[in-house]
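Action item from last meeting closed. Structure (548 res):
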């Protein structure tokens, strides 16, 4: 059987408009000319093959783009011998009809593009799905009113030094987050010796104790999903990926739990990026609604948080039932683990599992922001920015990933990649994906470790940026998150590898090292004081202080 291939320009064709250069040309579609001339005008190249007609590969494109339902080849079999002018004219007309159909396809494509563009513009105008404009309230600042120039002087004036007790607690939580990457090596004696903590359990233990039959059922389900439907659509694949993120055996991040008996606090520590599944959760970044609140959240992190929430629930309920009103819950994590901790924390409140008084502030280290206008959730729950403490290294790329300015061509690419971005208010109004939430703690390590940030005062220290809801503070924070811009960081070869700037400013062990360096620096200042003052201050180094 013979087939023909047609060379068609990728540029849209609008045959209704005639240019002066083409007005006098003969219309090959309306003339009955020979098949040879028709092939010259239409640039038809015949390809002969004895193979069966190839089948189209599975496509993720949505159905109904061109509404064509034809099973016959595009060009009739050319092995037939022309018999008389009648058959030649019939063949020419049949081929011409296919060219007309291709032109009709192009017209439909152009019309569809125009319709999509009109719909996109309409969605951008109303900013959110409800059309009430609430999603438009995520602006960092009013560009018409706030023309503040952000430099080192103005930014430094908004910073405050973090108190000594708070720095100690951050160092403690950074230690736990660093241990989350080596959970099998955790020694209960070490936790007790360093911080008087009691190890409870971990995700690795839960997996080891899982019932073998349950594990086999999960494997069977995965196998069935692989062979059941080879023509799975993109939407079904997303749903399958979301379910995988919620599974215990494919959870993107490991975790462990420990108790502080002196304060009746159970601490949940979630690991960051350390597996393919964790990267999958991070890169599944299209927006979706969080817990029916109408606030948009990073979908991949949200789906993973649902699974971790279910894994945490037995240990949460057991602790709450044991200590009642005295029980406290602390959530913390590094990188994606911090974002997961935040979502689990807020899910406990939106689902009325615990009271706000039972929750310590969430503490994240180098975590990406995952909410668009997350302040709306805090307002609904009666919370303020003190409920979320975001710790970031001065040059860490991860907190900047979704909250820096996105160039227009990148924004347009995202909208073509995923339809939900077309009505995403943060992208349409602010040129970013997700907005910062909570108090910002900024670490500047020693210059020997990493160059100082141009907006921060020189020297090693940890600062707090409060009142992030004020217009001037939002403007300052936006300037900080765009300095350096992630694209600027990624374009340097020195950013990559085990010694690159990306890992240097994001690694959990470096967060711990920087905080401990600040503590040692503070300790040296204490030691240099007179003897009588030193004797009074040394107990501060071993006592426990809350961050709240």
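Sequence:
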């Amino acid at each position: 059987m013979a087939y023909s291939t047609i060379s068609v320009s990728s540029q849209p064709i609008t045959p209704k408009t005639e240019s002066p250069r083409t007005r006098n040309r003969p219309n090959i579609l309306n003339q009955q000319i020979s098949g040879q001339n028709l092939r010259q005008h239409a640039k038809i190249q015949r390809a002969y093959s004895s193979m069966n007609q190839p089948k189209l590969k599975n496509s993720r494109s949505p159905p109904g783009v061109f509404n064509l339902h034809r099973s016959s080849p595009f060009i009739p079999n050319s092995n037939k011998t022309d018999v008389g002018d009648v058959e030649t004219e019939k063949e020419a007309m049949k081929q011409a009809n296919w060219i007309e159909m291709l032109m009709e396809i192009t017209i439909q494509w152009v019309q569809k593009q125009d319709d999509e563009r009109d719909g996109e513009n309409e969605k951008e105008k109303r900013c959110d799905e409800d059309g009430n404009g609430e999603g438009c309230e995520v602006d960092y600042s009013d560009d018409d009113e706030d023309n503040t120039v952000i430099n080192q002087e103005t930014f430094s004036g908004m910073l405050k030094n973090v108190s000594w007790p708070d720095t100690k607690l951050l160092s403690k939580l950074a230690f736990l987050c660093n241990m989350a990457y080596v959970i099998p090596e955790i020694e209960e004696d070490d936790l007790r010796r360093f911080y008087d903590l009691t190890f409870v359990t971990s995700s690795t233990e839960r997996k080891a104790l899982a019932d073998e039959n349950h594990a086999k059922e999960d494997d069977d389900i995965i196998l069935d999903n692989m062979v059941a439907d080879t023509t799975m659509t993109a939407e079904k694949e997303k749903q399958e990926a979301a379910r995988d993120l919620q599974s215990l055996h494919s959870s993107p991040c490991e975790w462990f739990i420990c108790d502080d008996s002196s304060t009746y606090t159970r601490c949940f520590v979630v690991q960051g990026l350390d597996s393919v599944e964790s990267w999958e959760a991070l890169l599944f970044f299209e927006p979706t609604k969080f817990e029916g609140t109408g606030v948009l959240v990073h979908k991949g992190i949200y789906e993973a948080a649902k699974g971790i929430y279910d894994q945490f629930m037995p240990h949460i309920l057991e602790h709450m039932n044991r200590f009642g009103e005295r029980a406290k819950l602390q959530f913390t994590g590094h990188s994606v683990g911090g974002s997961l901790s935040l979502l689990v924390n807020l899910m406990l409140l939106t689902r009325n599992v615990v009271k706000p008084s039972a929750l310590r502030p969430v503490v994240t280290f180098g975590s990406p922001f995952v909410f668009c206008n997350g302040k709306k959730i805090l307002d609904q729950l009666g919370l303020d920015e003190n409920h979320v403490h975001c710790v970031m290294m001065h040059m860490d790329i991860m907190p900047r990933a979704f909250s820096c300015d996105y160039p227009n061509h990148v924004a347009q690419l995202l909208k073509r990649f995923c339809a939900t971005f077309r009505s995403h208010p943060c992208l349409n109004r602010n040129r970013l994906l997700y907005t910062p939430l909570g108090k910002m703690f900024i670490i500047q390590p020693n210059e020997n470790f990493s160059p100082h940030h141009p907006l921060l005062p020189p020297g090693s220290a940890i600062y707090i940026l409060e009142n992030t809801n004020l217009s001037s503070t939002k403007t300052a924070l936006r300037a900080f998150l765009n300095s350096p811009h992630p694209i600027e960081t990624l374009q340097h070869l020195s950013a990559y590898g085990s010694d690159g700037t990306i890992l240097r400013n994001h690694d959990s062990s470096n967060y711990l090292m920087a905080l401990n360096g600040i503590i040692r620096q503070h300790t040296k200042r204490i030691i240099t004081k007179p003897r009588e003052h030193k004797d009074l201050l040394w107990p501060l180094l071993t006592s426990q202080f809350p961050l709240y």
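Note appended to the action item: Residues 213-239 form one domain.
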